[in-house]
Amino acid sequence: MNYMKDILFSGTLNKRVLGIQSNPEEIEVLIREYKPFILSTAQKCTYKNYITEQDDEYSIALIAFNEAVKAYREEKGAFLSFAKSVIRMRCIDYYRKEKKHTGNNLSLDGDDGETTDNSLIYSSIMQYEEDETAQNRALEIEQYRQELEKWSIRFSELVRVSPKHAKTRAACKKIVDYLTGNKDKLEYVLKKQMLPIADIEKALRIPRKQTERLRKYIIAVLIIKNGDYPFLNEYVKDWGNFNKIWYNIYKILYYEGEMSA
Asked: Cys-Cys link to 255, which of 74, 193, 205, 251 (CB 3.0-4.6 A)?
């Protein structure tokens, strides 16, 4: 199962969890739907290549997921990130208790128990941070997509209209720099949702037809440069191959989502 949709539209899942916290039957339905997620999260807490429903880790993760559903609140952020954190904590607690009582490391490999235990904690923290970063990036992309819709621009169009030649990209950069460096011109664009093409032609000597042809591309970059998009801003810093960037984002939002539906 692909969880990109759950990340992008986490608000829907969050509301669902809040609405079923006092309904055991609905919680069971949710657990069945998210069994692959529970298995995957539990497996990442071990050094096994895979686990099954017969493994102790799965039982611990199942209980932890149920606990996460009942304990979840909106201020805790996205539910799936919260659930992952609870599952990892419970698995670590389980390993520590078993090691204390039996002296064994269960499914964990390594000669030194303490070193292995610390390594598990470290890897779990690192995985959590990676998941948080992925979630933030996905949410940023979705926010950007919604902003583009206000301008009647789609990612699929950006793949098509993005300039492939360095000379054309350089012209676009001049236009974007000109607009961002001129407060009045920028306000005009944001308010009217139009480019001041005559002013651009006069100031930069860039032909009107070229600016018109690249309008959607210029606006798309302008939105990133002047919005709260730290992840996307990293991509537009060097004015590289935007065609590839738009395509990758488009594939994440649409192609992969449709394949997993």
From this structure: 251
